[in-house]
Amino acid sequence: MFGQLLSYLPPSLLARWQLLVAVTAIFNTVQNFMTLKLTRQIYNNIPATSVTSLQARTFAVWTLTSAVVRAYAAYHINEKIIYDMAMFTYLIAFGHFSSEILIFRTARANGGVISTVIVSTSSLIWMFLQYDYYVRS
Prior knowledge:
- The chain is mainly alpha-helical.
- It has one domain.
- The chain is built from seven helices and no strands.
- Helix 2 runs antiparallel to helix 4 and helix 4 packs antiparallel against helix 5.
- It is globular and about 50 Å long.
- The termini are far apart.
- 25% of the residues are buried.
- The model has no long low-confidence stretch (mean pLDDT 94).
- It is a multi-pass membrane protein.
- Keywords: Endoplasmic reticulum, Lipid biosynthesis, Lipid metabolism, Membrane, Steroid biosynthesis, Steroid metabolism, Sterol biosynthesis, Sterol metabolism, Transmembrane, Transmembrane helix.
- It comes from Laccaria amethystina LaAM-08-1.
- GO terms for molecular function: protein-macromolecule adaptor activity.
C-alpha cells in the first residue's frame, strides 16, 4: 500500500521525505490518543501527573494537523502556498520543542525531543535551500 502511495508522488526525495514524516506523525497522533507513556517521556522534566490526557489529545490534534499539511505537501511539492505551509509546520515544531527545553524547562534533551528537533531543523533547512527549485513563483 505504501508503495502505491509513493507511485503518485512527484519524483522527488523531498516529497518522499514529507510523506515519511507525515506517516510518522500519524503514528504519534494515535499514540497520543491512546496513552500518555510517550508524551511523558518527552515532557520529562516535570512531574508525570502534569502531563494530562487533555494535553496529550491537544498535542495529538496538532500533530495530525501537521501530518495532513505535510502529506499534502508531498503530493503538491511545487505549489508555493502548500510548500510554505509545510515549512511553517516545521518552524512551529522547532519553536515548540526548543522553547520547552530552553525556556519553559518542561523537557530535557533526550531521544524523543532531540529527534523531533533534528527532523524539524533539517526539514526546514532542506526546504529553505530547495525553495527556488520546487517553487517557481
